[in-house]
């Protein structure tokens, strides 16, 4: 697959409750990054995160697809009828992410760079 799914997120206001739910449901192990985010690495498949939403942000589930060029990918999203929602944003020193809505309104993430 040229652009694989490399990460996912499940988010809601009760971060600890979500962590406990998914750990007990699927046997996932999670590691807290901070009080709002925990990384999950299932035995198989891509890893993900469980995140606390804040403010008016609704609960959500999204996947992140690996791309080489975030700006070009977002241009293509617009050409195909989607809508960029979050511009390229740095994550640490070596990665960036962006978010877009597909034509049905589903939120999808893009990741570029090297995971450390």
UniProtKB/TrEMBL annotation:
Domain of life: Bacteria
Listed Pfam families: Glyoxalase
Residue ranges that the Swiss-Prot or TrEMBL entry lists as coiled coil: none
Domain annotation VOC: ranges: 4-113
PANTHER family found in the cross-reference section: GB|AAF24581.1 (PTHR33993:SF14), GLYOXALASE-RELATED (PTHR33993)
Descriptive protein name: VOC family protein
């Amino acid at each position: 697959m040229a652009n694989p799914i490399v990460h996912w997120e499940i988010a809601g206001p009760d971060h600890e409750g979500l962590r406990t739910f998914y750990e007990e449901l699927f046997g996932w192990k999670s590691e807290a990054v901070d009080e709002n985010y925990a990384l999950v690495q299932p035995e198989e498949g891509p890893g993900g995160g469980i995140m606390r939403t804040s403010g008016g942000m609704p609960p959500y589930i999204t996947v992140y697809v690996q791309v080489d060029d975030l700006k070009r990918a977002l241009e293509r999203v617009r050409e195909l009828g989607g809508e960029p929602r979050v511009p390229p944003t740095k994550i640490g020193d070596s990665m960036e992410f962006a978010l877009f809505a597909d034509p049905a309104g589903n939120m999808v993430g893009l990741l570029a760079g090297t995971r450390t």
